[in-house]
Amino acid sequence: MFDLHQPAEQAILVHITFPQEHAREDLDELRMLVSSAGVHAATVVTGPRQTIDARLFVGSGKAQEIAAAVQQYSADVIIFNHSLSPAQTRNLERLCQCKVIDRTTLILDIFAQRARSFEGKLQVELAQLKHLASRLIRGFDNERQKGGIGLRGPGETALETDRRLLRDRISALMQRLDKVSRQRETGRKARQRAEVPVVSLVGYTNAGKSTLFNKLTQADVYAADQLFATLDPTLRQVRFPDFGALIFADTVGFIRHLPHDLVAAFKSTLQETREADLQLHVIDVSDPRLEDNIAQVQHVLHEIDADGLPQLRVYNKIDRAEQDPRIEYDEYDVPQAVYISAQNGVGLDLLSRAIVARLSDRYLSMQLRLPPDALNWRAKLHEAGCVRQELFDENGNCLLHIQLSLALWERLNKQSQALLQSCVLTT
C-alpha cells in the first residue's frame, strides 16, 4: 500500500512590531490563518522595528535570522504577517532560498481552498489574478519572443505576454461573474416581490455566524473553529411564530486588512448584505480584541456601502465569558443588542424576540372577516404566508388573524379593489 498522506508544509512565521497603528497586525490571528491554510508553523521570528526597510522589509540582520531558521527547520515557505512589495518578496526569496508569501497572499490561498460554488471559485480566481497582475516583475528570462520569416522586429517580451494573458483571463472572468450576478439579481428581485424580509448575518471571521445560522434555520452549513470556515453565501427561509417568513443569509466573515481585490470580487455575493432588511452583527464577546473587531467589520461594511442599514448586535459565546443571556434596549425600547451562546442554544428565544421587534415596525397585524363569496382571498393570504390564526363562524364567514408588511397589504388591497379593507375588524 502507498501512503497517500501529504505532510503539511513547514512554515517560518515572521511578525514585526511597528509603532504605527496602521502597520500593526495580530500574531494570534496569523497563527489561526496559517492553521486554516493547513500549514504547520515550525517557529515564529519576531522583533521590533521603527520603519519598513525598502529592500528586505526587515533589517539585514533579521533577514539572516530568518534564513537560518529556514535551514534549521527545513522550511518550505516563509509567511510574513504583513504586506510585502514584489521587490521585497524577490529579495527575500533570493537571500533565504525559500518561497516567501505575505498576509494578503495567505488569505487569498485560504479563500481558494474554501470556495465550493461556481461563483465562489470565479470570485477567488479573479481576486488572485488581480493581485498577481500588480506583482508581475521582470525575470532573468524576460527576452524578446523570437520571430520567424515575416515576423522580424522587437516582438513581445515574456513579461508583456504574461500581462496580456492575465488581462484576457481577468476580462473573461468578469464577464462570467457579471452573468452569474444577473442571475442572482433575478432571485433577489423575486424575493423582494414576495415581500419576504431578509436578515443578513455579518461579523468578524470565527465569531460564530454559521453556528448561529444553523441554529436559527435548522440547516447543516459547515461550521468549525477556524478562520473563513464559510465562504459561499447560503440562504434559508424560516417561518417565525407570530410573524411569518424570513430569509436568513449567511455570508463570508471579515478580517483585518481584507484584500481590496477580494472585497471587489465578492461584491455581488455581499449584495445580500447591502440590501438586507436587518443585519445581525455577530460578535465574539470572549475575544479580547472585541472593539477592534467591531471597528473592522464596520469598515468593510462601509466599503461595500452597507453601513447604513438597521443593525442588531449579537454578542455570541457568552458561555466563555461567563455572562447571562439578555436583551439591551435603547431609550425608545428598541432592541439594540442580544447576548447569546449559539453553540449551546442559550438566548436564542431572546434573539428571535429581538428580530421580530426590529422588523415589526414595518408590519401590520389585523383581524379580517371574509364572507363566503370572498374565500378565494383566504387561499391568497395563506399563499403569502401571513395567516396566524383562522376560525369559521356559524354563517360561513372566515375569521383571520394576519400579519404582513405594509407593502404587501397595499398590493393586496389594490388587487382586491378595496375588498380586504372592508373586511378589517381590528388592526
Automatic annotation (TrEMBL):
<protein>
    <recommendedName>
        <fullName>GTPase HflX</fullName>
    </recommendedName>
</protein>
<dbReference type="InterPro" id="IPR035647">
    <property type="entry name" value="EFG_III/V"/>
</dbReference>
<keyword id="KW-0547">Nucleotide-binding</keyword>
<dbReference type="InterPro" id="IPR016496">
    <property type="entry name" value="GTPase_HflX"/>
</dbReference>
<comment type="function">
    <text>GTPase that associates with the 50S ribosomal subunit and may have a role during protein synthesis or ribosome biogenesis.</text>
</comment>
<comment type="subunit">
    <text>Monomer. Associates with the 50S ribosomal subunit.</text>
</comment>
<keyword id="KW-0460">Magnesium</keyword>
<dbReference type="InterPro" id="IPR032305">
    <property type="entry name" value="GTP-bd_M"/>
</dbReference>
<keyword id="KW-0963">Cytoplasm</keyword>
<comment type="similarity">
    <text>Belongs to the TRAFAC class OBG-HflX-like GTPase superfamily. HflX GTPase family.</text>
</comment>
<dbReference type="Pfam" id="PF16360">
    <property type="entry name" value="GTP-bdg_M"/>
</dbReference>
<dbReference type="InterPro" id="IPR030394">
    <property type="entry name" value="G_HFLX_dom"/>
</dbReference>
<dbReference type="InterPro" id="IPR042108">
    <property type="entry name" value="GTPase_HflX_N_sf"/>
</dbReference>
<dbReference type="InterPro" id="IPR027417">
    <property type="entry name" value="P-loop_NTPase"/>
</dbReference>
<keyword id="KW-0378">Hydrolase</keyword>
<dbReference type="InterPro" id="IPR025121">
    <property type="entry name" value="GTPase_HflX_N"/>
</dbReference>
<dbReference type="GO" id="GO:0016787">
    <property type="term" value="F:hydrolase activity"/>
</dbReference>
<dbReference type="Pfam" id="PF13167">
    <property type="entry name" value="GTP-bdg_N"/>
</dbReference>
<keyword id="KW-0479">Metal-binding</keyword>
<feature type="domain" description="Hflx-type G">
    <location>
        <begin position="197"/>
        <end position="363"/>
    </location>
</feature>
<dbReference type="Pfam" id="PF01926">
    <property type="entry name" value="MMR_HSR1"/>
</dbReference>
<keyword id="KW-0342">GTP-binding</keyword>
<dbReference type="InterPro" id="IPR006073">
    <property type="entry name" value="GTP-bd"/>
</dbReference>
